[in-house]
Amino acid sequence: FFTATLNSYTEPLDHERIFTILEDMKKNKVKILPPDINSSFPKFSIEADGVVRFGFNAIKSTTTSVIEKLVEEREKNGPYVSFIDVFERNKGSLNKPTALALIRSGAFDCFDTNRAKLVASRDSFLDYTKKLKKKEDNESDIGVLGDLTDLLGIDPAPVKKKRKTKPVEIIVPELIDTPEWDQLTKANAEKTAFGYYLTINPY
């Protein structure tokens, strides 16, 4: 009952109604788990022993299509093994707002609980995957041109020469060492993500 009601307020997102239901769940001793990149789905879901898992669609500033691709990739090719793995496997789809919202919500805590470090590293990881995507697209274009020239019997050399681009230097980024947020900052980041305090209430 609670799960179905929660999901009815995710599209469009009504965080005030969701907060009211979550408070009611606490009173009824129904446990809710925070969002997790390897366990959550777009909608609220039920896990073992009737525990409710927070759904990605209830996180503010996330893009539904991006969330669906994140989950589809995980279900198809297995759990994500690291923070950078999420970015690499979703290059071209994962965007800044969604990545930031997921970090603030704690969805990546399974990899690193220092959310400040993940926020500081987000842009370099997105820039890295953007370069990866560009490199793959360039290689794909050259491959298609090669297939066409073989099919048409045209000398591919002039065509490939025109399509030649400057090699892209790709350096795999590392997480930027950053001091952890204090509890108040962490709580306020969660409130930004959800519209209310979920795992930490500083007051």
Structure summarized in a few sentences:
The chain has 203 residues and is mainly alpha-helical. It contains eight helices and three strands. The mean pLDDT is 90.
Structural class, judged by helices and strands?
Answer: mainly alpha
N-to-C CA distance: 30 Å
The largest sheet is: 3 strands, mixed
Please tell me the overall pLDDT: 90
Instruction: Work out the helix count.
Output: 8
Tell me roughly what share of residues is in helical segments: 40-55%
Radius of gyration: 21 Å
Number of strands: 3
State the order of secondary-structure elements, H for helix, E for strand.
HHEEEHHHHHH
Q: Give the strand content.
A: under 5%
Q: How do the strands line up in the largest sheet? A: 1-3-2
Instruction: Give the quaternary arrangement of the chains.
Output: single chain
Shape: globular
Q: Which residue ranges are poorly predicted, with pLDDT under 50 across at least 5 consecutive positions?
A: none
Which SSEs are present, and which pair or pack?
Layout lengths: L1 H6 L7 H13 L4 E2 L11 E2 L5 E2 L10 H14 L5 H7 L6 H10 L9 H38 L3 H8 L19 H12 L9
Helix pairs in contact: 4-6, 5-6, 5-8, 6-7
